[in-house]
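Design job #97: recover the sequence.
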């Protein structure tokens, strides 16, 4: 889970502050020492940490905080604002040429950073959200596997890939791709370049030649968030040598620390355009400093949740029916199965819950269904009688044995399902209450609960 380790430490630190009534300067300084240690353990750049802590302390020991009725909350507010500022305050839009001109993105990065996948994700997103007609260009002439991967991703997304082979130089391939784009009216060209295991002169020279050969609109560096401080060092090196316009951070969903996300902007002065939040080709989010800061401090990320719901192919009527049954305390195992199927389209109930303010932290220890267990869940529910699905509290031990036998599972699996059902019902009821209702009793957006 993104930022999980850092988020836990910061939230524990701030709980100590909010549990107190009045705060002293010593309380604030003690808390900031813990914050500093948490950030350093998260692999945030030392200078970034030092400047961050200094800014927060200067604001937090002022009379505005000390004399406040809720000083602990005021400190958290300051930390939140400074976290946002360190990541760039507002999302930075990737720059596109007018639709009647060709936008050219040069995708750079080390081998294994996720550059090829990110190129395809970016093409699909800009086609959908910015109405662009993309052409992916295979410029990695050293690894046939990279070309094959780009072609496979292009096929999955129905995005054309230009690949004349490995017998041409990279600048020549780029020039040929531009001619192809002009002739076939593509207005977005994404150059997927070769990477190396480490930064070397030959790679940099090739990128310099490529930028000289075609009119590159923006140079986008793809870095692996899970490499922490190394990702920041890579970004600095590329920026110094070829100049970059922004960054795509990949594997941010697996980065429990968060060092790269919190350091890149401050160290390089370049914005993070997008964050890769999963393995699926659609898992590319516009990087929002506000949303990231909110996630780190346990404030939820409702806007991302709304976007997930809008992008998923959900059955709105089924969602509304389940919502009404939750309100009447009539939610049963058939509804549970339907909603689990819907939630899986959005990444699973755990992914949804952790985006809600005040709910994500309650997930620890909760046994919630995941993709692997969904087949067993479905088999067990389908092995029940209609009465058992409507009234799970009436499922006795003999019935559990029959359900387990009929679904190829164990009694322990059935007990686990019933526990999951009750936990999920309570959490979804809380989620529905948090979200409230829109006008005329309808939900304000599609959600599977």
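Job complete. Output follows.
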């Amino acid at each position: 889970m993104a930022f999980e380790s850092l988020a836990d430490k910061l939230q524990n630190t701030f709980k100590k502050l909010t549990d107190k009534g009045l705060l002293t300067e010593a309380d604030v300084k003690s808390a900031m020492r813990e914050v500093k240690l948490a950030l350093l353990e998260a692999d945030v750049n030392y200078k970034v940490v030092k400047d961050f802590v200094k800014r927060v302390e200067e604001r937090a020991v002022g009379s505005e905080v000390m004399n406040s009725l809720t000083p602990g909350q005021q400190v958290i507010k300051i930390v939140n604002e400074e976290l946002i500022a360190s990541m760039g305050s507002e999302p930075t839009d990737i720059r596109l040429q007018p639709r009647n001109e060709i936008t050219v993105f040069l995708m750079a990065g080390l081998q294994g950073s996720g550059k090829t996948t990110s190129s395809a994700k970016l093409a699909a997103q800009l086609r959908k959200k910015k109405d662009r007609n993309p052409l992916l260009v295979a410029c990695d002439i050293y690894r046939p596997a990279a070309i094959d991967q780009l072609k496979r991703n292009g096929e999955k997304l129905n995005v054309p890939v230009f690949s004349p082979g490995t017998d041409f130089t990279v600048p020549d391939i780029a020039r040929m791709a531009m001619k192809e784009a002009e002739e076939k009216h593509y207005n977005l060209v994404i150059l997927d370049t070769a990477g190396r295991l480490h930064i070397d002169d030959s790679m940099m020279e090739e990128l310099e030649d490529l930028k000289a050969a075609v009119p590159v609109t923006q140079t986008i560096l793809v870095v692996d968030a899970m490499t922490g401080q190394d990702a920041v060092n890579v970004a600095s090196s590329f920026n110094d040598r070829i100049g970059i316009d922004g960054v795509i951070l990949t594997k941010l969903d697996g980065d429990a620390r968060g060092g790269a996300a919190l350091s890149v902007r401050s160290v390089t002065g370049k914005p993070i355009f997008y964050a890769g939040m999963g393995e699926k080709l659609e898992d590319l989010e516009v990087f929002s400093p506000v949303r990231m800061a909110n996630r780190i401090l346990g404030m939820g990320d409702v806007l991302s949740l709304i976007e997930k719901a809008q992008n998923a192919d959900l059955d709105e009527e089924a969602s509304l029916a389940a919502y009404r049954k939750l309100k009447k305390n009539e939610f049963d195992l058939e509804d549970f199965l339907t909603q689990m199927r819907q939630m899986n389209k959005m990444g699973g109930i755990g992914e949804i819950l952790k985006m809600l303010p005040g709910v994500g932290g309650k997930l620890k220890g909760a046994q919630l269904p995941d993709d692997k267990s969904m087949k067993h869940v479905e088999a067990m529910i389908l092995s029940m009688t209609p009465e058992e699905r409507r009234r799970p509290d009436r499922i006795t031990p003999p019935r559990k044995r029959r359900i387990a036998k009929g679904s190829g599972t164990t009694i322990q699996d059935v007990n686990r399902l019933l526990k999951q059902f009750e936990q999920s019902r309570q959490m979804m009821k809380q989620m529905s209450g948090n979200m409230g209702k829109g006008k005329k009793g309808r939900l304000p957006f599609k959600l599977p609960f």
